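Aim 2 progress update. The chain analyzed this quarter is reproduced below.
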Amino acid sequence: MNHQAGLEYERSFWDQGKHVVGIDEAGRGPIAGPLVVAGAVFDIGYANSEIYDSKALSEKKREKLFSLILREARCYKIKIVTPEEIDTLNIYRATQKAMEEIAREIDAEAVLTDAMPLLHCSKPTLSIIKGDQKSLSIAAGSILAKVVRDHIMLGYDRLYPDYGFARHKGYPTKAHLEAMEKYGVLPFYRKSYGPVARMNQMTLDLD
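Predicted structure tokens:
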């Protein structure tokens, strides 16, 4: 199936001479590893029919487009949000805060996000439901975030091969939960997430 992210949201700002950053994240659902938030800005009028929602692309296609975006974006920004910050703020606010930081810091006059309203942003902002399928800039952000996060989880897989991070990427699959129960909670787990909190409580009860 040939998907293509649209440009109508970009054009509404490009017509005013404004550059647009599209921001998305990867990793809100996993119980282990960081959240990665990324933003990409393209030159006014840029188009590429291959850039689309990272979840709908194969790993090989994502990797190829990741390199292309790094080359062709006017600028980009990637933020790694630690499990500790997620546990402190909660995942929603941690995502929102990282997106607000990118919006503030990056060289663009307008902001598009994937379904995340920004509370502290002085630039014109649109929060778009399914934005990673409707906006090329947001789709590019989703690819940057997903590839960086997957690489981090592959690194954890090499360090802790018994947990299967290469397969589940930290999501709470049955195999992952069984491995966590067997081998224990690692330092980069999100302690506020239900399965991890319950596991830690069980350990405390046993002590």
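The chain has nine helices and five strands. The longest helix spans residues 136-159. These observations will guide the mutagenesis experiments scheduled for the next reporting period.
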